[in-house]
Amino acid sequence: MPKKQKTITEYRPYTMPAAFPVLILSGDRWHISDVKSDRLHFHNCLEIGICLAQSGYMEFEGIPVAFREGDISCVPRNLPHTTYSSPGELSLWTYIFLNPDELFHQMYPGSSTAFPDLSMANIPNFRFIYHREDYPKIHFLATSAAEELEKKPENYQITVRSLLLALCIEIQRCQIQAKVTSPQSEIGDGKMAIAPALDYIHKNYMLDFTVKDLADLCHLSETHFRRIFHSIMRMPPLEFINNTRIYHACTLLKTTEESILYISGQVGYNSVSTFNRCFAKSMGTS
Fold it and tell me: Is residue 194 pLDDT above 90, yes or no?
């Protein structure tokens, strides 16, 4: 019996300005082929998609979820997925990527600990697709934010911040209120087992912690945690931690004049040699 081919999962981080951590990807290059990729990918931020034309499927944990023109998609950070169009079609998308905790904290006058978690990272039975007819408010907020980002009128950043805050709150409300009966209800439960570890890495990547520490956060044995983590993320925990640290190192390298020695320490490496080795492995260059 032939050995089952291993699924390849790619980490695709996006670097965004600290003052306004939002990125829009739009235009003709964002046509999606009807050929299903043999690779999954995941991001370091929340992905909002707007399907402008045609139809197809987004796939999570081996389960396809159908989309059509006018739909809005929402994919939390660190969730492996892939998108492909229906046979003979070429769907067209606009994507908005954002870091909710960084984008919205300045808008909230109180303690940051009291601000609602809008990352969508820990919601079970997650709904990924919102049909325009069923969720007109979500469609309006997403498309309005995209229009502001593309046209950049005066004070557009204030408007975009407000629209995306309203969008994230509305999506979260729908997640809590809706009783999902479609195949989507079966998706995401596996990821919930390691969600505490993923959130801890996201916020504390620069600290010194072990895989056992992460397993304890998830109330799992280290062996079981490693197995579940690899099955969901398609890579070992240490590789994911290193990828996260290197991503943040790249941001510092691009946006500051600090030395490599300083940056390596800021992202959690005790020596430059270890940083250089991990950087080369993740980025394919020194």
Answer: no
